[in-house]
Structure formats: C-alpha cells, structure tokens
Design brief:
36% of the residues lie in helices and 18% in strands. With 298 residues, it is α/β, with parallel strands linked by helices.
C-alpha cells in the first residue's frame, strides 16, 4: 500500500492535500508542530518538531513511508524572507530525506518557491532563468534544492521540486493581499495599496495542493513551476474583488510605496506542469476569488 508522510500538514497547503491523497488510496500520515485533533481517524497525526533531528528519526522509523511530501518551512508573514531559521530548515530537510531513504522511501516531492528566481528576468523558466541568493529564504531554498538533486542522484531516489508562486484562497493569512482587501471592504475601511501596476502569477491554494499531488504521483524528476502561467496586474485583481463585493468607493492606489528594486513583471513558464505533469487548474481567477470571498463571509 502507498503510504505518504506529509510535513507541514496543518499548514495552508497541507490541509488541502490530506483528503485528496486519502481518496487516491494513500495511507495518510501527517506531521504538525501543533497538537492536532486526531479525528477523523483516517489521518494519522504526529506532533513533531522537524528542527529536532531525533523527532525526525523517530517518526520515520515509526511510519516508514513510501512517499514523502515535504511542505514544512518557516512561513510567518513579514518574517520568513530574512529569518535565520531558514538555514536550520536546510539542515533538517536533508536529515528528513536521508532518513526517508534509510527506511525504504521511494518518492519525495519538496515545496520550493518562486523566490528562488531572479525576478528581473520576468518570464521565469525552470531550466534557464538564473537563481537569486539575495535573502536567507531564497538562498536556503536554492541550497536545499541543489543538495536534494545531488543526494537523489547518489542514492537513486525519485524526487521532484515544486516551485510555488503566488497563492490565494480560503484560510489565507489575513495580512496577505486578497484577504486584506476583502476585509477592508467588508469593514468599510479605506483600501490602501501600492500603485498596483505590477504583474504577478496567482493560483488558488486548492489547485496548488492538487499540483503537488500530481507531482507526487508522477515520475518526473527535478523542478516544476506550480503557477497559473497567466500574469494579472495587481490593480486588476483588487478591482475584481471590489466589483464582486459591490464596492464603489475610490481605492487608494499609490498610498503604499512600492518596494525599491522589485520587478514590475513576473510570471511562470508552466509548460512542464501542463505538458509533462499534465495538470490543469480547476479554478479561474474569477471563480477562485469568489471562493475566497465566500469563505471570508462564512
């Protein structure tokens, strides 16, 4: 039987992979740094601190998974880009994957990030766009990816690396763009934004989760962008939310300074995701935003 261990399973993406993996016939084992209610009992939960090497060894010895979906990382908004904890996650992730192999693991998929790229190149492609090492987050993710690639070749491990772009959807942190706009409108507050002229690549969190599952079930090796491949201007996205909520007041574009040296245009090349993994998103931007608005209303 296929047995999957999911790290960061109580996180934003993690919560969206549990049921689909169960429905695909996996025995689902899930780790979280927080104590999680173990019902429903079809999920096997483990309270694990992945920065403690002994915890890693014990859970791997107990579960002995065939598949590993490694989603856990430092993700505190406003902190994770520059946090020194990023370097510890490189160490713990190598420890995790090493023990996974020791106990018979066959296929690992790791969550990467579009922050690994140099955004100045705009159209970001897995095999040709230069990488960035400007922040601890970007440098650590790039370092881990290189190490996992080398280790997998050495021991014959099947692996893939999913580079996630801009997510949105239910359960999103309230300080992020989409929920902050929804909240401001519903609370009848001013909407303060940058100029909004920058283009970004957004994908609904459930589609991101399903893309990771598709990667886990495939045998594709190496890096795959997980994104829509459709750039949207941030101003357009904000206006779509306002329109869907019937908001007809002026939006304060330009009230927040745009970060210096940040690219105006970035979008993922999604050819590998579409043609090789054969993945297609379920949500359009409109249906995804409507899903987010519905969730925040409820």
């Amino acid at each position: 039987m296929k047995k999957v261990l999911i790290t960061g399973a109580n996180g934003w993406i993690g919560r969206n992979v549990l049921q689909p993996l169960l429905e695909k016939g996996y025995e689902v084992h899930a780790t979280s740094t927080k104590v999680v209610d173990s019902s429903p009992t079809q999920y096997n939960w483990y309270h694990v601190n992945l920065l403690h090497f002994q915890d890693i060894k014990e859970v791997m010895k107990q579960v002995r998974p065939t598949h590993l979906l490694h989603l856990a990382w430092e993700a505190t908004p406003g902190q994770y880009w520059m946090s020194k904890v990023n370097y510890r996650w490189v160490q713990s992730s190598i420890e995790l994957i090493s023990h996974f192999v020791d106990y018979g693991g066959q296929r690992v998929v790791v969550a990467g990030t579009c922050a690994e790229y140099d955004w100045n190149y705009g159209y970001l492609t897995e095999e040709t766009t230069p990488c960035s090492y400007k922040t601890p987050y970007a440098a650590s993710k790039n370092a881990l990816r290189a190490l996992v690639h080398s280790f997998s070749e050495l021991v014959g491990l099947s692996y893939s690396w999913g580079r996630v772009f801009f997510l949105y959807g239910p359960n999103e942190h309230p300080r992020r763009l989409v929920p902050s706009v929804i909240s401001s409108i519903r609370q009848k507050e001013e909407i303060l934004c940058t100029h909004g002229e920058q283009y970004r690549d957004f994908l609904h969190v459930k589609d991101v989760a399903n893309a990771f599952i598709a990667l886990l079930e495939s045998d594709i090796q190496g890096t795959v962008n997980i994104a829509s491949g459709q750039p949207v201007q941030v101003k357009e996205l904000i206006l779509k939310i306002a329109n869907k909520l019937g908001y007809d007041q002026p939006i304060q574009f330009g009230a927040i300074p745009y970060p210096e040296n940040e690219s105006y245009f970035m979008v993922a090349n999604t050819e590998r995701l579409k043609r090789i993994v054969r993945f297609s998103p379920e949500y359009t931007l409109d249906s995804g935003l409507e899903d987010s608005i519905r969730w925040w209303k409820e």
